[in-house]
Amino acid sequence: MKILVCISHVPDTTSKINFTENDTKFDTNGVQFVINPYDEFSLTRAMWFKEKQGANVTVVNVGNASTEPTLRKALAIGADDAIRVNMDATDGLSVAKQLAEVVKNGGYDLVLAGRESIDYNGGMVPGMLAALVDFNFVNGCVGMEIDGTSVTATREIDGGNETLSTALPLVIGGQKGIVEEKDLRIPNMRGIMMARKKPLNVVEPVATESATSIESFEKPAPKGAVKLVDADNVDELISLLHNEAKVI
Amino acid sequence: MSVLVFADSAEGKFKKSAFEVVSYGKKVAEQLGSNLVALTINANNNEELYTYGAEKVIAVSNDSLATFNAKVYASVIKQVAEAQGSSVVILDSSIDTLYAAPILAVGLDAGYASNVVALPSATSPFTVKRKAFSNKGFSNTVISTEKKVIGVAKNSYGVFESPVDGSTETFEATIADSGVTSIKVERVTGKVTIADADIVVSAGRGLKGPENWGMVEELADVLGAATACSKPVSDLGWRPHGEHVGQTGKPVASNLYIAIGISGAIQHLAGINASKVKVVINTDPEAPFFKAADYGIVGDAFEVVPKLIEKLKAFKQA
């Protein structure tokens, strides 16, 4: 089985979000970049398939050279090789089109991605990719098993779960549950040393046009200070929620 | 040219988000000088959408659409969009729609903007404001394609009445091959789900153990709220994973979020920032949640929550 894991290179959750160039660019100054947490769940599941059922795992990112440390980290976790599509990622559709090209050229059976990235939160790349390459698709995946080419997958729905049956080739939008957080892997020294020797292939992008572009960024309006209510006076809280906030 | 809104329903009944996207679609149609068409799938009371401005409802009824299937639903929406000559298709942000929308966008060769929080600030170029960076920022995004797909973030626009004399037409959709088949649906019944809830009552490690959740559930009952929890609580197995709210758990965009005994780690706040009004109850006045909250009580949950339940019961009866 050939597995492709899509890796988004995103600011760490705790990063301060700032913008530069007249609020048109994300300010990367002092920002630590990591593997997108949702992708990390999917990557770990790919490792599980590799170890338990036998699979070759390739990781891919659409981005400029600055994303390579993130791909190396994925290699240190255990992926066999990496591909970087040498393009500044602009919007979901153009990224999905680049990934579709990689999928078509690589003959992958299973493509694992995260449900969304924590930077632009678009949640569009896995579904667009599945549509572009005409693979089956399960989003918000919280569990999956593969038997030959048949797949049983579980996805989260409002207020519960749905179990689905489908088949390879398949694209998955994964999230916590596809593996548990305690099972996520931290690269060890051996993995880091080995990752240096693993192939990281840079490929040039195919011509695409973006469907969307970001004109500017904004930050939420600053929030007023919390109104503290005395613990002995919950009536006041009820009154504030009813009369001022109008939420009860 | 028209604006098409997909009005989502469950078991024949419109979701609140359906009224929100129709309200939103009405304004977009006005901005574009175009008419509004609403698409419904197996919904019972299509005329309810006239109240929110849908002059024309296209009703699709088909037993094979009884269970949601992303590829099939995307194909039905595409067929109606093409039949109606729709240049803009508007959807809500339910788990199902987030699954189908990217497939629809590729099918229509349309640019897709998800997490939209406001009406277009301009229609030429078509510009919408979207949530980004886990609610720590917004991006003003231009959709440059001829056809556009918009996903409206939950509870971000509101429901507005704008009654019209509407009419309903039926539409026979061709059902696509799905490739993915539903085997089993397991849903917690009789409880308000986090996705639908206007109010969410959430608790953290400050509650000391799963045996103390009775008061959290009672408070949620009084308010008609859903219950939720912080990550450590679901990791410890005190509460099911489906209740975990935060960066890697469920996002919450409720009108009111009450956090009891949750300190407010940045990952938790990322999941709840989209909620309108936040209340925190915590013994530690230095808890970071107090910086993010609108109202707060510094106090012991075991004393404050029972009092709050009692007073709310009296308030509800009054």
From TrEMBL, chain A:
<dbReference type="GO" id="GO:0005829">
    <property type="term" value="C:cytosol"/>
</dbReference>
<dbReference type="InterPro" id="IPR033948">
    <property type="entry name" value="ETF_beta_N"/>
</dbReference>
<dbReference type="InterPro" id="IPR014730">
    <property type="entry name" value="ETF_a/b_N"/>
</dbReference>
<feature type="domain" description="Electron transfer flavoprotein alpha/beta-subunit N-terminal">
    <location>
        <begin position="23"/>
        <end position="212"/>
    </location>
</feature>
<dbReference type="Pfam" id="PF01012">
    <property type="entry name" value="ETF"/>
</dbReference>
<comment type="similarity">
    <text>Belongs to the ETF beta-subunit/FixA family.</text>
</comment>
<protein>
    <recommendedName>
        <fullName>Electron transfer flavoprotein subunit beta</fullName>
    </recommendedName>
</protein>
<dbReference type="InterPro" id="IPR014729">
    <property type="entry name" value="Rossmann-like_a/b/a_fold"/>
</dbReference>
<keyword id="KW-0249">Electron transport</keyword>
<keyword id="KW-0813">Transport</keyword>
<dbReference type="GO" id="GO:0009055">
    <property type="term" value="F:electron transfer activity"/>
</dbReference>
<dbReference type="InterPro" id="IPR012255">
    <property type="entry name" value="ETF_b"/>
</dbReference>
From TrEMBL, chain B:
<dbReference type="InterPro" id="IPR014730">
    <property type="entry name" value="ETF_a/b_N"/>
</dbReference>
<dbReference type="Pfam" id="PF00766">
    <property type="entry name" value="ETF_alpha"/>
</dbReference>
<dbReference type="InterPro" id="IPR014731">
    <property type="entry name" value="ETF_asu_C"/>
</dbReference>
<comment type="similarity">
    <text>Belongs to the ETF alpha-subunit/FixB family.</text>
</comment>
<keyword id="KW-0813">Transport</keyword>
<feature type="binding site">
    <location>
        <position position="205"/>
    </location>
    <ligand>
        <name>FAD</name>
    </ligand>
</feature>
<feature type="binding site">
    <location>
        <begin position="261"/>
        <end position="268"/>
    </location>
    <ligand>
        <name>FAD</name>
    </ligand>
</feature>
<protein>
    <submittedName>
        <fullName>Electron transfer flavoprotein subunit alpha</fullName>
    </submittedName>
</protein>
<feature type="domain" description="Electron transfer flavoprotein alpha/beta-subunit N-terminal">
    <location>
        <begin position="3"/>
        <end position="187"/>
    </location>
</feature>
<feature type="binding site">
    <location>
        <position position="282"/>
    </location>
    <ligand>
        <name>FAD</name>
    </ligand>
</feature>
<dbReference type="GO" id="GO:0009055">
    <property type="term" value="F:electron transfer activity"/>
</dbReference>
<dbReference type="InterPro" id="IPR029035">
    <property type="entry name" value="DHS-like_NAD/FAD-binding_dom"/>
</dbReference>
<dbReference type="InterPro" id="IPR001308">
    <property type="entry name" value="ETF_a/FixB"/>
</dbReference>
<dbReference type="GO" id="GO:0033539">
    <property type="term" value="P:fatty acid beta-oxidation using acyl-CoA dehydrogenase"/>
</dbReference>
<dbReference type="GO" id="GO:0050660">
    <property type="term" value="F:flavin adenine dinucleotide binding"/>
</dbReference>
<keyword id="KW-0285">Flavoprotein</keyword>
<keyword id="KW-0274">FAD</keyword>
<dbReference type="Pfam" id="PF01012">
    <property type="entry name" value="ETF"/>
</dbReference>
<keyword id="KW-0249">Electron transport</keyword>
<dbReference type="InterPro" id="IPR014729">
    <property type="entry name" value="Rossmann-like_a/b/a_fold"/>
</dbReference>
